[in-house]
Design brief:
The chain is mainly alpha-helical. It has one domain (11-168): dinb family like domain (Four Helix Bundle (Hemerythrin (Met), subunit A)). The chain has helices spanning 14-17, 25-41, 59-81, 93-100, 107-126, 130-134, 146-168, and strands spanning 136-139, 142-145. Strands 1-2 form a two-stranded antiparallel ribbon. Strand 1 and strand 2 (142-145) form a beta hairpin. It is globular. 33% of the residues are buried.
């Protein structure tokens, strides 16, 4: 299955999907996973509590957001790939960030969790068939294919990598 086209996901995800230059989701795993994991793993400890502006998330908060979003998106991917037609609700990222209390966690624990979650997501994606990736469902009020959710996962990681590079490092 190729790169998703408009209509296979909500318009609000276009920014994420457009960041991924891969002809299919398996290629995206090969092309993006290792460099992304290396980037996040090497984030410096001295930046853990850094906020680039008052009221903005710390690096710990941002990592927790990335983890929470990947968990939610991989759950959506599971449900839709398994042909579950139950509409899946959206989530409010700021509410999750406030409830997560990332400041109480060690930076290394957050990085370890992200790396483990990424590996799990990649293994799940690699086990999906073309038919499963073509399944559609509803998430956040929009029609979406399982394939598109995979691209959104990688696009979200790339989006935050750029923010970290520009504002945190």
């Amino acid at each position: 299955m190729g790169k998703p086209i408009k209509g296979e996901y909500g318009a609000f995800y276009e920014g994420y999907v457009s960041k991924i230059d891969a002809d299919n989701l398996q290629e995206a795993v090969i092309k993006y996973s290792s460099p992304l994991m290396a980037f996040y793993e090497k984030l410096p400890e001295e930046k853990a509590d850094y906020q680039y502006a008052p009221g903005k998330w710390s690096m710990k908060d941002l990592l927790q957001h990335i983890i929470d979003t990947e968990r939610i998106m991989s759950y959506r991917l599971l449900r839709i790939a398994r042909n579950d037609k139950t509409p899946l609700p959206g989530f409010e990222e700021n509410d999750y960030a406030n409830a997560a209390n990332a400041k109480t966690r060690s930076f290394n624990a957050l990085k370890d969790e992200l790396i483990a979650l990424r590996k799990s997501t990649d293994l799940f994606i690699q086990g999906l068939s073309e038919e499963q990736l073509s399944n559609t469902g509803i998430a956040s009020g929009a029609n979406v294919t399982a394939n598109a959710i995979g691209y959104i996962i990688f696009g979200h990681l790339m989006h935050h990598k750029k923010i970290i590079e520009e504002r945190y490092l």
